[in-house]
Amino acid sequence: MVDAKILVVDDNKSVLSALEILLQFEYKSVQTIFNPNQISSFPDLQDIDIVLLDMNFSAGVNTGNEGLYWLNEIKKRSPNTSVIMMTAYGAVDLAVRALKQGASDFVLKPWNNERLMTTVKSAYELRKSKQEIHDLKKKENNLKQVINEGRNYIIGQSKALTSVLNLVAKVAKTDVNVLITGENGTGKELIARELHRLSNRKNEVFIGVDMGSIAENLFESELFGHTKGSFTDAKEDRAGKFEAAHQGSLFLDEIGNLSLQMQAKLLSSIQNKSVVRVGSNKPVNVDIRLICATNCNLEQMVADGLFREDLLYRINTIHIEVPPLRERNEDILVLADFFLKKFAHKYDKSGLRINQSAQEKLMEYPWPGNVRELQHTMERAVILSDGSVLKPSDFLLHAKPMQSMDGELMTLNEMEQQMINRALEQNDGNYSAAAEQLGISRQTLYNKLKKKNN
Ligand SMILES: Nc1ncnc2c1ncn2[C@@H]1O[C@H](COP(=O)(O)OP(=O)(O)OP(=O)(O)O)[C@@H](O)[C@H]1O
Predict the structure, then answer these.
(1) pLDDT at residue 403, as a whole number
(2) Strand duo 409-410 + 402-403: pairing
(3) Which key words are in the record (predicted)?
(4) Distance, CA of 52 to CA of 107 (rounded, Å)
């Protein structure tokens, strides 16, 4: 027994009872209406899967207009219900009109039982797939909302930040590729999200990918997807990030961390506006707005043969440089205040304020970790604070030279060099193993060594 609800509408009582008996053999719920006017007040019409609707009701009238009228009424109230028109032989033109207006099919009277049951079955399949699409769309919209939700406030009033935001507003509505550069923690991802929020794609997804964290052997599958069985762990077909971002924005963070081989694959997808899943040879078209970010100097990397020039020109139609926090001092206290309020609220410590000398300390500090470091500093200070006033001692700032293992003062750079050397020694000079131990990608390690050796 199929768990479907069918409604039959006909002004001929014998037609109604004949269809009721026939359909009840296969379908759980069959209801009948003698007078079509009852359609308007029929309860829960959206729950009806199929309506079998006569085309002519008033005796002697067979223009079919009544049937078309009621078809429209049903479709208005329940667009996904399948409507099968019942029409007399010779009125096929009318049935075609009904199909154009949204009927799923028609049956000729007198009907052939077997054929009618087949028509009802197909109409039910159609209804089910329409319902599935409807449910999926609803889920998709909910997901998009969850993914895009949480307005990210970009705080700051410096000239430098304002001109970045003006540029963002100018290019957001276009579909050009944007490259965002700047030191770690300056807010590149925030800017990328703002570009999406102000774009015509704002109701579609924003998909971010950290290129530095993708293992070389998974790069293609992560970005372009794979087909079932294309490698050992490919248990089913899977779309990659490009396909997932279709019609939305794709944010490729740490683009400077890609090997030349990965760069070539990425370039080809960007150029062709299509991807080929691993294990397939069929290109899938993708419509994305590409936003890339890096803290590397890509021009220098091109000169050093580490980054493809053609890829650079593809991704940097518009280049946005986010200045480090030390070059926009006016933003420091504004941001500090914003984070103070945010964390005071989060940790239930309202009424906190930063005293004058602590403000001076924050202003003097060079913030090598930029806004992210300021955010963490504020969070820590709020958590550890006892009174209602934050003093200089509440802020632990590390930019001063630190001590090496043997007691000598070291800069951050020297410490980094020492850690890299140690990791390389411990891993017999193996770059991949040393990078893994340090928690960075092989490419980042390579870039750091290259920079230090220059
Ligand atoms: N102007 C700003 N206003 C408010 N919050 C900011 C601002 N800039 C950065 N942030 C916050 O600082 C943190 C770091 O920002 P984000 O991740 O965008 O930086 P990033 O440049 O992409 O960093 P990375 O280079 O390390 O990927 C985030 O929590 C972000 O919300």
Answers:
(1) 47
(2) antiparallel
(3) ATP-binding, Nucleotide-binding, Phosphoprotein, Transcription, Transcription regulation
(4) 9
Half-sphere exposure of 4 (CA within 13 A, CB side): 24
Residue 419 in contact with residue 438, Cβ under 8 Å? yes
Closest ligand 1 atom to the C-alpha of 156?
1
**Residue 400 one-letter amino acid:** K
Per the model's pLDDT, the better-predicted residue between 84 and 233 turns out to be: 84
- Which residue out of 257, 320, 341, 372 has the highest number of ligand 1 atoms within 8 Å of its CB and is therefore the one to mutate? 372
- Please state the atom number of ligand 1 nearest to the C-alpha of residue 253: 27
DSSP 307-373: S-HHHHHHH-SEEEEPPPGGG-THHHHHHHHHHHHHHHHHTT-TT-EE-HHHHHHHHHS--TTHHHH
**Amino acid present at 176:** V
Both tokens of 181, joined, read 């550069």
* Residue 115 CB coordination number (10 Å): 11
pTM for this one? 0.65
Mean pLDDT of 93-111: 89
Contact 438, 449 (CB under 8 A): no
β-sheet bridge partners, residue 88: 109
Place of tokens 């940097």: 316
Cα 416 from chain centroid (whole Å) = 36
CA dist., res. 250 & res. 240, Å (int) = 11
Could you tell me the end-to-end alpha-carbon distance of the chain, in angstroms, rounded to an integer? 78
Q: Residue 322 CA: which ligand 1 atom is closest?
A: 21
Domains and CATH numbers, the chain: 2-137 (3.40.50.2300), 159-321 (3.40.50.300), 325-394 (1.10.8.60), 403-453 (1.10.10.60)
Sign of the dihedral through C-alpha 278, 280, 281, 287: negative
List pocket residues of ligand 1, CB cut-off 6 Å: 153-156, 182, 184-190, 253, 293, 295, 335, 371-372, 375
Beta bridge partners of 8: 32, 52
Q: What is the mean pLDDT of residues 58-76?
A: 80
Give the residue-averaged pLDDT of 407-414.
Answer: 63
Close Cβ partners of 300 (under 8 Å, ≥ 6 residues apart): none
